[in-house]
Amino acid sequence: DLLVAKRFFNCGNGVGEVTAAENKLALISEITRLKSTAWLLQQFKDLASVKNVDISQISAASLFCETNFRTSKASGLGASATDSAVWLVEPRRTKSVEKYSSTLFHPPRDDQIGITLSAFAHYVYSSDNQKLVLADIQGSLVNIGGIDTVVLFDIMHHTSEQDSGVGDFGPEGIQMFATQHKCSYMCVGLGFDIINGQIEEEEDE
Ligand SMILES: [Zn+2]
């Protein structure tokens, strides 16, 4: 009961005018972003484990991409639609959503989850030679197997080629992260090159 199916209604032509093909393209972009985010997240976790750095439990939204060959009523495409409808399934947002960054704003955080996600963003920025930046980092706290886990969804990317889909500001978006990110003790512990100096630490939880 944690999941909800999602599809795009407005990706260019305005509400009600999106075609099945456009819907599919927008969803494929999002799925690509989510998959690469999930992959990078795993690398980040592995690194934290190797470096013995304590990070918060973070997970990427689960992907169940389903292609309906017979158009369902809910897709609103009508019985004559020939394209398949593509759905993305992600955590249902009954829980409160916490935003950790926006499209062009990457504020420093002083909570463990925020510090973890900021360090993850730094990891992504560094690991792909500053060609990729995570934006609109948001998540909900979900109890998975007894462990409170932040499940991320709807993450946007800024790419040097500006080809990741909705919300990609290209080099401008990358630059915003590069000038705003403040490193934490976690960035230091993970061995990242420090950018824009480091946040002063207070040793309390
Ligand atoms: Zn950093």
Walk me through this protein's architecture.
The protein has 205 residues and is α+β, with helices and mostly antiparallel strands. It has a single domain (3-189), classed as MHCK/EF2 kinase (Protein kinase-like fold, Alpha-Beta Barrel), CATH 3.20.200. The protein has four helices and nine strands, in the order βαββββαββββαα. The strands form three sheets. It has a four-stranded mixed sheet with strand order 2-8-7-5. A three-stranded antiparallel sheet has the order 1-4-3, with helices on one face. The chain has a two-stranded antiparallel sheet with strand order 6-9. A hairpin with a 2-residue loop joins strand 7 (138-144) and strand 8. Residues 8-15, 64-72 and 78-85 have low confidence and may be disordered. Zinc ion binds next to loops.
